[in-house]
Amino acid sequence: MVFEKLNPKIVDWLTKAGYLESSLPQKYAIPLILEGKDVLIMAPTGTGKTLAAILPIFNKILENKEKPGVRLLYVSPLKSLNRDLFDRILDLANYLDIEVDLRHGDTPQSQRAQQVKDPAKVLIITPETLQSIIIGKRFREHLKNVEWVIIDEIHELVTNKRGTQLIIALERLKELKLGENFQRIGLSATIGDPNKIAKFLSTDKCQIIDARSEKKYEISVEYPHITPEDFTLAKKLGINSAGSYCLRRIKEMVDSSKSAIIFVNTRETAESLGSKFKTWLPEFPIAVHHSSLSKDVRIDVEKKFREGEIKAIISTSSLELGIDIGTIDLVIQYGSPRQVTKIVQRVGRSGHGLGEVSKGVIICNSIDDYLEALAIIERNKEGWLEEPGIPEKAFDVLAHQIVGICIDLNQASKERILGIVNRAYPYRELTMDELNAVMNVMLNIRLLGEEDGKFYRTKRGLLFYFENLSTIPNEKNYLVINKELNKRIGVLHQGFVSQHIKHGAEFIMKGEPWKVIDVDEDKINVISSREGEGAVPSWEGELIPVTMQVASKAAELREKFDFEDLKIQKKDFVIPTNKLIYIETFENFIIVHSCFGSKINETLSKLLSAVISSKIGTSVSARSDAYRIIFRIPDEFGQELVLQTLNEVEPSWVNSILIRSMRNTSMFEFRFYNVAKRFGIISKDANYSGQILQNLIDMYVGTPVYEETMHELMLDRLDVKGAMKVIEDIKSRKVKIEVSSGYDVSPLGAEALDYSNISFIKPKEKIKELLEIIKERLQNKKFWMVCMNCGTEFGTYKNKEMPESILCRNCGAKLIGFIPAKESALAKKILQKHFNKAKLEVDEKKIIEKIGETAELFINYGPKACFVIAGYGVGPSTAKRILARYHKTEEELLMDIINAERSFISTRQFWSS
Fold first, then answer.
1. What is the chain's mean pLDDT, rounded?
2. N or C: the chain end with fewer CB closer than 10 Å?
3. What share of the chain is helix, strand, coil (3-state, %, to 5)?
4. Backbone angles phi and psi of 481, in degrees to 5
């Protein structure tokens, strides 16, 4: 047994703690780590991989306990390591008399001072912490004794610039130790390409331990089976029946489990789902957890869940990692998880103990979502995982680390800097010319100084280094308010706002199109939009991309199912696949069914829209998902134009056209803004926008700042190689194209015109549901009624409770005036003066006139007059115009009221006070 290789005191602790036999990762990792090998351990959550790394290292510390300084750095992406895990490490360390301490951004100054004087043998840190302590004069001495570095959840770091920054810092640590190596251990639950991650982790040969096969999963996928109960709940909550089915089903599953996490893909969805539960079941023991909530709120939710005060948490990726929230026996994924790695990581949070089965349910409410989820399950069974995209040669991170190296060494030559940086995997191919270009920018903005071929940090450079310890941009949040209902809709983040939000712009939130009326300092006022044409989803920058491998599998599955929509698609249209593109038209939308995944479709949409725009001389808007590209093209141009463009574009065009077209987008501006901050060109707290930012971009065209912006944008959002391959396959006829011969939109086309991947109401149904919600609001409006002939009061009525005919019981007159109930107290006083023939002020006369006008409307139209005036900002004169029109249906009347409300909201900002 592998535990026999360890110190008897460690074995004694393991026995007392109940670890009677080793897990698979422990069996394979402990001997290799004892031998001094660099190791990457891949194992599911709850299989003991952390102990597999910690036990042999503690064993080695016991062999030489007297050696001073920090011996082990444990790097976690989170400030709060799994509490249960930390307690276990601490318990073992206390038993062995080994000091363990935590250090991160929230560590008190007194504790930091103590760590500088007498640091613990084991220090648990974040990647950003290493950036700060490695340049501390006194702390550096302690770090010279580091023998081991463990990187937890390494898959969370390799795909972003946090990991890039960390891996150069480890090479700087090696320099600090005068080239002496330290052992590196990486821990991960899910990795698509372990060989690449192993190279990222270690400059030496790294042993890969794949212990994933030990974990068993039970994951099912559900599609709505709507009942009358769902229709009733849908009306009550103002949502569609599929959404109400999902709510009801989630409640059933939570009720039948001891504890559950409901994972969602965006913060917006988390808030929306949470608010619907609170409206429906205010006492239901459920809470929301995501990264935009304050630290105190998140900690409170975690504590209540551990202690059983709440039974379920709705969460984004914020709970994928090892935060301790106690035992979980069920994971529910709302909507497709979009990636295999996501569902494996998320479901792995349940059945946490060794040998336990991890159970999960994916609940979907659209055909795309359902088939995509099934495709993900199939890909997982095949052992396939998404490959990590590592940022290569990130110039902004490089600039920060060059300053760090100059601080470490006091001064350094370009050759020395390049030698250190080239050892880090993301910079293995960095050339001297590229380094020169980056350092020239740094010299120009005085982050560096030069003397006799050696470079040193300046005062400004030192400030820049500390301001950019983190590569994560700080984003401001904006509250979105529906001015028609005076109701909060959700929150937008600075990145999205800077790219898309201005007066008159349209965007999608909670599955509905909205039009921006005005933007306050931290609020965005909107009204609902009937069009939604060209609008972008509010989750656009946040939604997890779907790969071609998943999208193509989901498209294949369409042939296997007999949903009504798919039956119609097969019979009357075409089933698109990754080998067959189908083009159809709906009004002035051209829908290209292209089952190539999120990034390839995004690339193709930008390429094709740029080429088509140049052909017709006007801008063409486009949006895409994993299965389609939707163009909005002027009526005189049809789908033949898109077909022609698809057939004529060349793979060699892709890069140059994308670079030209991306330069003028707000998306590029926002990325440049953040890259320029990480370069030190823009200070951390600056708020540049508009022409100032444009001027800055023009200044840096052709420099590493500009190049890094473009590179980051393409890595995160696009797949240039994938798009080029699709174009090649079209030319070689490996991918065929069919064009619709009719004008009816196919069911899968209608899915494209739906505005959200978490809702399957079609556009006309959306309008009907909106009308129902507004109708209910108008019917619940209360009015106070009074006879304007003699002053007799009739009391307060809701619109829906008002009698068809009201006669004054005192004088028999029909001249019944009305005013909103909340204004009745003031109206009574003024009416009393009016009927007593007392002198009225100018404002009082206006109120009497207004009530008189409502009385005239009531004579002619009865309670219908009250219903119209219940509209937001609709006064007697506007109501008179609406009521004078002929309305075939109640829907037409409602639309007139809504248009009047929109007009009021849109123009109110221009009125004088």
1. 86
2. C
3. 50, 15, 35
4. -115, 130
617 CB-contact burial (10 Å; exposed 0-12 / middle 13-18 / buried 19+): exposed
pTM for the complete prediction? 0.76
In whole angstroms, give the CA distance from residue 269 to residue 537: 12
Token representation of residue 692: 């100032």
The position carrying tokens 């994308």 is 658
* Banded pLDDT at 271 (limits 50, 70, 90): confident
588 by Cβ neighbours in 10 Å (0-12 / 13-18 / 19+) ranks as middle
Q: What is the rounded distance in angstroms from the CA atom of residue 911 to the CA atom of residue 913?
A: 6
- Domain 2-214 and domain 216-381, same fold? Reply is yes
Q: What is the DSSP string of 538-569?
A: TTTTTSPPPPHHHHHHHHHHGGG---HHHHHH
Q: Which of 358-367, 464-473, 748-757, 761-770 has the lowest mean pLDDT?
A: 761-770
Q: In CATH, what is the architecture of 395-467?
A: Orthogonal Bundle (1.10)
The b-or-e profile of 784-811 (16+ CB within 10 A means b, else e) is bbbbbbebeebeebebeebeeebebeee
d(CA 315, CA 320): 9
Do residues 86 and 124 lie in contact, with contact meaning Cβ atoms separated by under 8 Å?
yes
Residue 420's pLDDT is what? Answer: 97
Residue 139 corresponds to which amino acid? F
Q: Which of residues 862 and 79 earns the better pLDDT score? A: 862
- DSSP string covering 171-190, please? HHHHHHTTT---EEEEEES-
The architecture CATH gives domain 2-214: 3-Layer(aba) Sandwich (3.40)
Q: Kindly compute the dihedral angle of the four CA atoms of residues 736, 737, 742, 744, in this order, to the nearest 10 degrees.
A: 100
Amino acid identity, position 509: M
Neighbours of 515 (CB within 10 A): 20
Which CATH superfamily includes the segment(s) 216-381? P-loop containing nucleotide triphosphate hydrolases (3.40.50.300)
Cβ(581)–Cβ(737) under 8 Å? Answer: yes
State percent of the chain over pLDDT 90. Answer: 45
Tokens standing for residue 29: 């990792």
